[in-house]
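Sanity check. The docking grid for adenosine-5'-diphosphate depends on where the pocket ends up, so I'm generating a full predicted complex first rather than guessing from homology. Inputs follow.
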Amino acid sequence: MNALHAPVTSLKGVGEALVLKLARLRVACVADLLFHLPLRYQDRTRITPIGTLRAGHEAVVEGEVMASEVVRGRRRSLLVRLRDGSGILSLRFFHFSPVQQQQFRPGARIRAFGEARAGATGLEIYHPEYRLLSTDAPPVEDHLTPIYPTTEGLHQTRLRALIEQALGQLDAAPEALPDWLPDSLRQRFGLPELHHCLKVLHQPPPDADPDQLASGLHPASRRLALEELLAHRLSLREVRLRIQQDGAPVLPGGRSLQTRFLTQLPFSLTGAQRRVLDEIGADLGREVPMLRLVQGDVGSGKTVVAAMAALSAIGGDCQAAMMAPTEILAEQHYRTFRAWFEPLGIEVAWLAGKLKGKARLDTKAAIQDGRARMVVGTHALFQGDVHFQRLGLAIVDEQHRFGVHQRLALREKGEAGGLTPHQLVMTATPIPRTLAMSAYADLDVSIIDELPPGRTPVKTVVVPDERRPDVVARIRHACAEGRQAYWVCTLIEESEALQCQAAEATHAELGEALPELAIGLVHGRMKATEKAAVMDAFKAGELDLLVATTVIEVGVDVPNASLMIIENPERLGLSQLHQLRGRVGRGSTESFCVLLYRGPLSAHSRERLGVMRETTDGFRIAEKDLELRGPGEVLGTRQTGLAQMKIADLERDADLLERVSPLADALLASHPEASQPLIRRWLGEQAGRYGQV
Ligand code: ADP
Ligand code: MG
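Predicted complex below; grid placement will be based on this.
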């Protein structure tokens, strides 16, 4: 048995209670301890002369007690004056025992560690760690002292001792933890050896730079971060390979359906749409499942592309499914597809969590017996009780809202027919290239880099709440000219209830201010049918103004709407604002977006809103968003598996991402057997999750 893979209970003194605490740190086996890296370090390798100490420094000092006394200030404390020939320092204890009072008699020699601060008597250390020295002083530490992230009830020193034990085992049996990056590759990529890295990070030599170590910029942490990114990449590639080993239905057909569809459209496709459709068509004509991401800015016309792809599947005697992240968007797609497909004699079904009872049973039956050729829905589509007769194409809209595993789950739905469906993933959030390489490395990418003709870019203004009356007047004016407007209420996303309340209040308030207008309200707490009715009325032009929460963020399409007010825009991410703003500027009239903030704005918020004013380029906005907020928030990566990185940090290590691909290629070419163990080392049970689906 490999000692490092043994559970932590194999270490001395580890019982049930400790196992639970370690589990909270995601430490289960001995090797996990080795990859549990310090947050920061203390330097206890040298004794600092008291005279050179500065406030804020953590240091070991050694000296002779001059005097000690209990002093009364605001709080009673024991004050110990210590000198070493270079200066004088006070140790201060707010909690102390009579024994301690005894210890600090004049002449006693003390070694103490702690953070110096400016106190009432000059430099002081509160509650230092200390020891009395007898004739011969023990040596100081021979390496920097690691401080680990820990959990309630697990003391730093206990954790440190466990990790030392683990390091001891590694020393005793180095082969138990192989370096899966072979010498040749390490040399080529300039990477230090694994054991050396772990050793350096847990027990850095005295001359190592603690700040460089703690910030993750030390070559040793960089090597581990790179290895972790590599493991994630390998895992995504593996998913891709596994999927591509399955057979997919060959779907060359659908030409005549597509032609009929295109003739009934009121516009012709853009060059970019045609190019992307060619790429999709080539994929669908092969017996390997397509895995393709279509990236196109808000309003670039992804839905038509999805419809054309769906027609290939339907023309090839298969079903197509399209999954959207919100019910409102799923409903809108449902209606769009019905309007497009029913004239072609294609039955379209709709499935979401809210569909209940007999209607649900009927819909599921139509999906199972194949009457429904096109199925639109929310994630309800991939629940266990939904069976397709023959799913040929799974389309996922607004991919950034779904996790990798959710997306892959749709694949199972094809298996009843013995075939794996093709997958088409669509996103309007342009993913910065570095992230795309990491989150979507298993997908081929097509880009719709052209907007349909006749669009005028949305003009954005940033306006303080004091000018609300002007904004209201602006709505009155726009609506008097026959145009329509959105008023979007935002609040912290966690509180949907509050957000709905705010929308209701705003709805009432605007109703009073603008009695001549027909004003609708839509928010997340309304029934699906109510929401749909309001959206319909707005679409049909029966409503002038729509007050909404961010439920309208994705995909809602009303070309006549040319004015959007967003309240408290500083609360939203830039990409989200961009999505919202994309609801206007869909027709040929000039459109406006008013970002109505309640001041004062922080410098940071000002900068962010400034970006919105300056550009309508979704790609630039996404890059800015990444820069200002970090990848976790931009992609909502908590669910995509990206945020579970142990060591790598996608922002800090962005430059490493460029090296991941060549490293993965080189490793797979020369040492393919290393791929599995690397994935297991870094992804553990997550790997199973990617792999299962
Ligand atoms: P998104 O890419 O944001 O999902 P949509 O598919 O909702 O965009 O398309 C936005 C609007 O543009 C829709 O009203 C759609 O009918 C229209 N549209 C799509 N393609 C074209 C085109 N080639 N020419 C004109 N209008 C188009
Ligand atoms: Mg869309």
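Relevant for the grid: The chain has four domains: 3-41+147-215, 46-140, 255-448, 459-615.
Also worth noting: The first strand starts at residue 40 and ends at 42.
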